[in-house]
Amino acid sequence: MSKSEGPNDRRKSGATWTVANRCINCLASRSVAPELLIEAKGQSIFVRQPETGDEIEAAWKAAQLCPVGAVIPPNDLPEPGPLFPEEVAGGFFRMGHNTKGSYGAHSYFGRAGDINFLVDGPRWSTRLVSWMEHRGGLDHVLLTHRDDIGDSKRYAEHFGADVWIHEAELDAAPFANRIISDDDLSSPDPAIQIVPVPGHTRGSVMYLVAGDTLFTGDTLAWDHHTQQLCGYRRYCWFDWNKQISSIAALRGF
Q1: Domain for residue 179, yes or no?
Q2: Range of the domain at 55
C-alpha cells in the first residue's frame, strides 16, 4: 500500500501512484478504480499499483475526477487526453469534473425526447461547456438533492437552462425556477419520471429516464465489494427509516 506524506506538488510523487493526505475520502475516485483504491484511516489509498492498460486508465480516471487533486500519478507518466465526459450507458455520460463542495458527487448528461439535461452539477469547465454546445446545448438541470448542486447555477445561466429541485431543498438552490412538490411531479419531458425518495435528505428525488435508466442521487449507490445496490446509513442526513421506506417503494416503479 502507498500513501503520499509529502506536499501537494505532484512532481514529487516519485515512481508510484499515490494519494496525498489532502484526500477528503469522498468515494469518487474509488468508484472508478475499485480494484486499486480502498479506504484506510479515513482516506483513499492505493492497495496496489496499476499494471494493465485498463488499470492505468482507471487510475488516470481517478486522478482526473478527484475533486481535490489528491490522486497523484508517477512523475514520469505522460497524462492521456481528457477521459471525461465518459459514456456509461447508451447516450448517458458521466461528466467528471467533480466538485469538493458536493463531496465529489458524480454528475451526468443525457438526452430525453427533444431535450438535453444534466443530473446534478459538475465543477465549472469551459471544456464541458464546449462539449455540451457540440451536442446541442443544455435545456434542463435536474438536481437530486441539496448536496450535489455543484456549479449548476453557472451552467444554467450560460445555457439559459431550467433548474429543477424539490421544494424542500430550495434553500440550497434558490436560483432554481422549476420547483418539484409531492403534489406536482410534472417533468421536463414525458420520458422523464420524477420519483420522490425522502430520507437521505428531506427532498431527495430520483429521475427515471425512458423507463430503464434511474439517476439515484445519494439514496442508492453501487457497492463494488458486494456487487449490489445499497444505501449508506452513515451518509443519511435526514431520516434513515424514511430512506429505507423510499427504497422499498421503488419496487412499484
Answers
A1: yes
A2: 13-72
**49 shares its domain with 119:** no
Phi, psi of 86 (to 5 degrees): -120, 125
Helix and strand numbers (H, E) in the chain are: 5, 16
Question: How many domains would you assign to the chain?
Answer: 2
With a threshold of 0.70, does the pTM exceed it? yes
Q: Quote the CA–CA distance of 215 and 208 in Å, as a whole number.
A: 6
For residue 6, pLDDT beyond 80: no
Q: Are strands 140-142 and 162-166 parallel, antiparallel or unpaired?
A: parallel
Question: Helix %, strand %, coil % for the chain, to 5?
Answer: 25, 25, 50
Q: Is residue 7 part of a domain?
A: no
Q: Are residues 161 and 98 in the same domain?
A: yes
pLDDT tens-place string over residues 69-119: 999 999 989 999 899 999 998 899 999 999 999 999 999 999 999 999 999
